[in-house]
Design goal:
The protein is an alpha+beta fold. The chain is 45% helix and 18% strand. It has helices spanning 4-13, 55-70, 104-118, 146-164, 170-186, 224-234, 239-248, 255-274, 279-293, and strands spanning 25-27, 34-40, 43-51, 79-85, 88-94, 131-133, 136-138, 194-196, 205-208, 211-214, 220-222. It has a five-stranded antiparallel sheet, sandwiched between helices. A two-stranded antiparallel ribbon has the order 6-7. The chain binds adenosine-5'-diphosphate (ADP).
Length: 294
């Protein structure tokens, strides 16, 4: 539980006109931090709280949301404030009344708007700062070459974490082999660095008043196919969404061949965060990617 008295003072300092008493209501659904609905004189606020060392995570999430908002594509919650006070840190966002997953028309809009977001480009792959994927660090060092970026900062980083957690043997050997085959699999692809949500699973999009909303991002610039690969990893996106995306900006030839490789990053992250239950899937994806490169 955060220290609400101190937190209230910090939020008032940040310009929120909170009611007295603050009466926070817990919101379920997040995996990482505590989430709350709090009332202010100018409406509801969505508040995430964590320990003081979550501040960097919140700062990166706030910057990610602001970057996505600047794309004027898919709606994201507006950032109201973030900061630390004593043992707590917080991120305050505009409250949005979600309707769950939307109608086919909302899903189509999401497809069109995500393609528009992906048309916001950077000069290289990465971002101006690191952030987190779940609670795992995500390294975003600017890199010209996509294959090098994906190998170093996505696969190698997670594989090293997996090694530290004791996953060696087959996973380690497959990881080494896959890295060698990476140029054969994606070396010719050379995607433009698109603005990505970065963690687009079914739990991070919803509908509000018929309009699609995305939240809880892990923003960076990279291959747009990675966002779509994440949508297909756990489901939660309709046919209408894929159809509309494909119409707005068709995927390049060979995207099906790269799909498993891009899902692998998130499966390795799940292995590192949630344990052995993801090991079989990670190894299968690696074997399939190696076979696809041959
Ligand atoms: P975590 O970082 O802990 O995974 P999320 O950002 O996914 O937390 O938020 C947890 C849940 O809170 C979401 O599943 C969603 O239902 C709800 N939520 C997220 N953002 C808002 C918002 N701006 N307004 C209202 N509810 C929200």
């Amino acid at each position: 539980m955060p220290n609400w008295q101190r937190l209230r003072a910090s939020l008032l300092d940040a310009g929120l006109d909170l009611t007295e008493p603050i009466r926070p209501r817990a919101v379920g659904g997040g995996d990482i931090n505590a989430a709350w609905r709090v009332e202010t004189d100018s409406g509801r606020v969505f508040l995430k709280t964590g320990s003081a060392d979550a501040l960097e995570m919140f700062a990166a999430e706030a910057e990610g949301l602001e970057t996505l908002s600047g794309a004027n594509a898919v709606r994201v919650p507006a950032v109201l404030a973030y900061g630390a006070c004593g043992a707590d840190s917080f991120l305050a966002l505009e409250w949005i009344d979600f309707e769950g997953h939307g109608a086919a028309s909302t899903d189509r809009l999401l497809g069109v708007k995500l393609a528009a977001q992906h048309r916001v480009f950077a000069d290289a792959h990465g971002w101006h700062r690191d952030n987190t994927i779940g609670s795992t660090p995500q390294i975003n060092t600017w890199t010209d070459d996509w294959t090098a970026f994906y190998r170093e900062h996505r696969l190698r980083f997670q594989l090293e974490l997996a090694k530290d957690r004791g996953y060696r043997g087959a996973l380690e050997a497959l990881g080494d082999e896959l890295e060698e085959r990476l140029p054969a699999l994606i070396g010719e692809h050379e995607p433009e660095p698109s603005l990505l949500h970065g963690d687009l699973w079914g739990g991070n999009h919803a509908s509000a008043g018929g309009e699609p909303v995305i939240f809880d991002p892990a923003v960076y610039y990279g291959d747009r196919e990675t966002d779509l690969a994440m949508t297909r990893l756990f489901g939660g996106f309709s046919h209408a969404f894929y159809e509309a995306y494909e119409l707005a900006w068709p995927l390049r030839e060979g995207h099906e061949r790269r799909l498993g490789l891009y899902q692998l990053y998130h499966v390795l992250n799940h292995l590192n965060l949630f344990g052995r239950g993801y090991l079989g899937r990670a190894e299968t994806l690696m074997r399939e990617a190696i076979a696809a490169a041959s």
